[in-house]
Design brief:
Radius of gyration: 19 Å
Distance between the termini: 23 Å
Structural class: mainly alpha
Order of helices and strands: HHHHHHHHHH
Strand content: under 5%
Helix content: over 70%
Shape: globular
Low-confidence stretches: 1-12, 99-103
């Protein structure tokens, strides 16, 4: 149980807040990782065409609002923060730049994801390629995905800074595990049906998130989100 501050607890005590943040994150992680374990377990079966269509529609729908979410955090930082977290602004701007492909529409993350989906559709299941609009209007999108996006935009669009920063940390802190689960549980088992050049197209999406010259990008994003939240509490 999270301890509430008493009259003797200094307001915005960074050590106190960090301890409570760790406890909240621990509870959150225990619950959210159950979903990722399920995704990883799919690698032990042959994912069906119907399952892949369901995954594609819902994951793409869920991912669509990521650039808007990152933009909201940057807006929050720029409007409300002291100069001592310039590094957080810089890293978040780099994150957004990555998401939109550094002015190259062929390398924005949504395009890379769509390319990955279409490789599997066309080469594994012998289906026609699908457009972004078709995915977003798919009858396979479930209510939970719609609720996720609605809640995400509501939290990131809040005028209350700790809500925006808390939402950012919650999402970024589980991004690596989510992407690794999807990579290993859904896509990698299908590589046996693909040529090297087709696998390379799929890997571009995951490498854009999980790898760079200095290690894992998403882990760096998580640390930036944590730092920004704690700096707000200073």
């Amino acid at each position: 149980m999270i301890k509430m501050p008493t009259s003797t607890t200094p307001k915005r005590n960074n050590k106190y807040l960090e301890e409570n943040l760790k406890e909240l994150y621990s509870d959150y992680k225990r619950n959210i990782l159950l979903s990722f374990k399920y995704i990883e377990s799919i690698k032990n079966i042959n994912i069906s065409e119907r399952q892949f269509k369901m995954f594609s529609a819902n994951y793409f729908y869920r991912t669509l609002s990521t650039p808007a979410a990152v933009s909201s955090v940057i807006t929050c930082l720029l409007s409300s923060y002291p100069p001592n977290i310039t590094i957080a602004k810089k890293i978040l701007l780099e994150n957004l730049t990555d998401e939109i492909g550094r002015s190259d529409k062929e390398h924005n993350h949504l395009t890379l994801l769509l390319d990955s989906i279409n490789i599997v559709r066309s080469k594994v299941f012998r289906l026609g390629e699908i457009s972004m609009n078709d995915l977003l209007e798919s009858p396979l999108i479930i209510q939970e995905s719609r609720q996720f996006r609605e809640n995400q935009l509501r939290l990131y669009g809040s005028r209350i800074e700790p809500i925006v920063l808390g939402a950012s940390y919650a999402q970024e802190s589980c991004a690596t595990k989510m992407l690794e689960a999807i990579h290993h549980g859904i896509f990698k088992p299908l590589f046996q049906n693909l040529k090297d050049k087709e696998i390379a197209i799929i890997e571009r999406y995951f490498n854009a998130h999980l790898c760079d010259s200095n290690g894992a990008r998403e882990k760096a994003h998580s640390e930036t989100a944590r730092m920004a939240l704690l700096k707000y509490c200073d």
